[in-house]
Amino acid sequence: MILSSLLLLFSNYKSNQDNYWAAREEMVKTQLQGRGITDPATLYAMLNVPRQEFVPEHLKQFAYMDRALPIGHGQTISQPYLVAFMTQTLGLRSSHNVLEIGTGSGYQAAVLSKIVDSVHTIEIVRALASSAGKKLADLGYSNINVKAGDGYHGWPSKAPFDAIMVTAGADTIPQPLIDQLKNGGKMVIPIGPAGGVRQLQLVVKKNDRIVTKNLLAVRFVPFTRDEKN
Ligand code: SAH
After folding, report:
1. By CB distance 3.0 to 4.6 Å, which of 24, 36, 37, 63 could disulfide with 32?
2. Burial (CB count <10 Å: 0-12, 13-18, 19+), residue 224
3. What's the predicted TM-score (pTM) here?
4. Residue 196 has what pLDDT?
5. Which residues does the annotation mark as catalytic?
6. Average of per-residue pLDDT across 39-63
7. For the CA of 151, the nearest atom of ligand 1
8. What are the structural domains, with CATH classification, of the chain?
9. Coil/strand/helix, residue 75
10. Phi then psi for 78, rounded to 5 degrees?
């Protein structure tokens, strides 16, 4: 494991040198590997997505800190550890078709897109959906579809999904998302009462029934229902 991690770090060294490379490498080592993120695909993705590009200009210097950051419209980009933890939990393979609810800055979608063939992501704040879509296209991510809308309904025409990640805190698991998950598929979603600490839940669908498991206490911006402009 240590050897493969070292190889992973080394193999990417040359092609990914930007001004933030050292900070990103340090983030992967201390915040992720240091806290039990071991999935090579997740580590690879976290090492290769330039997080600084997804935060407002004046916050770039904080992009690799162990914290969430504001991205405008009252929303936040999650702390790197949580992004990696949620990604690792889904047990992704390259052939997977993945749905994310809560595009926000587009960062989490970019991380997923480094691992799987296709990512579909829905954002309820229209301005964020459009800025994330533009950002992802500018950075050359070609396997991500961004849609503005209420993610409660999922994306029926792109279903079924091998994995679904919800990055806003809901009170219950939306039934359409359960319906659009493949048998054997996994979903991660923060569940709990509004305004409080929620439980990040792993939802596994087996024989058309779901089994849920609490993974971690988390704080997330709320899952909302009315589309905003
Ligand atoms: N994954 C994002 C962070 C998301 S913050 C990133 O990497 O930057 C959570 C996002 O969920 C916010 O942008 C919020 O507007 C969005 N959201 C909340 N309720 C939603 C809903 N019902 N459908 C789609 N997006 C929603």
Report:
1. 37
2. middle
3. 0.93
4. 83
5. 78
6. 98
7. 23
8. 68-218 (3.40.50.150)
9. strand
10. -65, 160
